[in-house]
Amino acid sequence: RAEVMAAQIYDAAHEQLGCDLTKTTDTAKFFQEKIFQYGSSKSEDEIMKIATGKELSAEAFCKQLERIKA
User: Fold this and answer.
1) What pLDDT digit, counting tens, does each position of 20-70 carry?
2) For residue 19, what pLDDT is reported?
3) How many CB atoms lie within 10 A of CB 33?
4) At what angle do helices 26-34 and 44-52 cross, to 10 degrees?
5) Backbone region of residue 43 per phi and psi (left: phi > 0; alpha: psi in -120 to 50; beta: other values)
6) Residue closest to 11 by CA, chosen among 70, 47, 42, 57
7) Lower Cβ count inside 10 Å, N or C end of the chain?
């Protein structure tokens, strides 16, 4: 579950920020505003929907596996 969540969050952050996440200070802002600020006040599923705009899905994880395979 954690790997699937990480892949989906990475894809959403990359899409929203429009660049490599390691090359911008906006990455920290993204995580603070979309994930960290909620602490334990929201469930993982609620945070996933807020951060990515989607319910948890294996789609992003599968895309990562396909890139590795290629």
Assistant:
1) 899 999 999 999 999 999 999 999 999 999 999 999 999 999 999 999 987
2) 87
3) 13
4) 140
5) beta
6) 57
7) C
Q: How far apart are the first and last CA of the chain?
A: 24
Spatial distance between the Cα atoms of 67 and 26, rounded to a whole number of angstroms: 25
Q: How far is residue 28's CA from residue 39's CA, in Å, rounded to a whole number?
A: 15
Cβ atoms of residues 17 and 30 within 8 Å: yes
Cα–Cα distance measured from residue 56 to residue 47, given in angstroms and rounded to the nearest whole number: 10
Radius of gyration of the chain (CA): 12
